Amino acid sequence: KAGSHISDGGQQYYYSPRDIADIANGYRPSIREAPLVEGHPATDEPSKGWVERLEATPDGRLLMKAKQVDPAFADGVKAGRFKKRSASFYPPDHPNNPNPGKWYLRHVGWLGAQQPAISGLRDVGFA
Fold first, then answer.
1. What percentage of the chain exceeds 70 in pLDDT?
2. Distances (CA, A) of 99 to 25, 70, 79
């Protein structure tokens, strides 16, 4: 969501509603598709699903539509084992960023025991 946020590493970032809109509008899964993952994996963990598209709300929230969600993982989300989530982004100047100059979604990490860096996000689930 738009606003000032401090990462788990202690770095402060500010995202304007325009930044959030740019993330949604610049997402190109045909070029670099963001996976759904458990936690924030440092290695090649299997995907639990994929981000099909992103949408920005006028108040600066980033929404996603997922696809190909693993049924066992979806059951875990529905049961409350992964109530929270945390997005990881390529910074605007990252060499692997497919949308240079803008933030780009890298993956969506679903959290169990770890709290997300951004507090106050509503719990989500799969329909």
1. 87
2. 10, 28, 36
Q: Which structure tokens are listed for 39?
A: 């936690």
Q: Is 79 exposed, middle or buried (0-12, 13-18, 19+ CB in 10 A)?
A: exposed
The answer to whether the beta carbons of residues 124 and 85 sit under 8 Å apart is yes
Contact yes or no for 88/107 (Cβ under 8 A): yes
Give the tens place of pLDDT for each residue, 8-20: 788 898 999 999 9
The pTM of the full predicted model, rounded to 2 decimals, is 0.83
Can you read off the two tokens belonging to residue 98?
Answer: 């497919």
The whole-angstrom separation of Cα 68 and Cα 71 is: 9
d(CA 90, CA 112): 23
Please give the backbone phi and psi of residue 37, each rounded to the nearest 5 degrees, phi first. -135, 160
